[in-house]
Amino acid sequence: DGGITQSPKYLFRKEGQNVTLSCEQNLNHDAMYWYRQDPGQGLRLIYYSQIVNDFQKGDIAEGYSVSREKKESFPLTVTSAQKNPTAFYLCASSRSGRKYEQYFGPGTRLTVT
Amino acid sequence: DQQVKQNSPSLSVQEGRISILNCDYTNSMFDYFLWYKKYPAEGPTFLISISSIKDKNEDGRFTVFLNKSAKHLSLHIVPSQPGDSAVYFCAASARGSQGNLIFGKGTKLSVKP
Question: What does the pLDDT read at residue B8?
Fold first, then answer.
């Protein structure tokens, strides 16, 4: 089955540690995105990538980093510089030409204490 | 400054009746609008979209209406079913934005049997 996988579903880290969230898709989509959702809030864009080896900052990129070495993979690193890292993180992908219709993974809930 | 607003955090409807979810936007550069449905602890699922050149788009029980002069769109679900109970997010994208979606905060729909 084609889809987007994010692992793990729940992640716990101590403050001051970097943590990398995985996102893999087998939909052959060119574009991939990372969003963050906080309670009672909409989704906010962190980073996005339209093609391999290229990515752009979204609205809230500070304290995050990404890489896009393969079409299928778009990992997100939450660094210790991110002031409020505890959140629900969602990865999405879309086809060229239909970039607005994004397909989302199941999400990773990160808790930093 | 919220560019996409969903002013009703929740809505309760009886099974079989119509559900109307509303969304307002402020950015006149938005040219594509989408509705996503989200269950708890899962990623959003794309539901229906509309381009700014149209004022209505229908897909089965779901219809989206766009009123550009009022900068308002709405999602109608007829008839509502208990399985429709979820959080609905309105999203918008501006011309040339490379797929950067701006989400509202969501409306939680409860359909009572």
Answer: 95
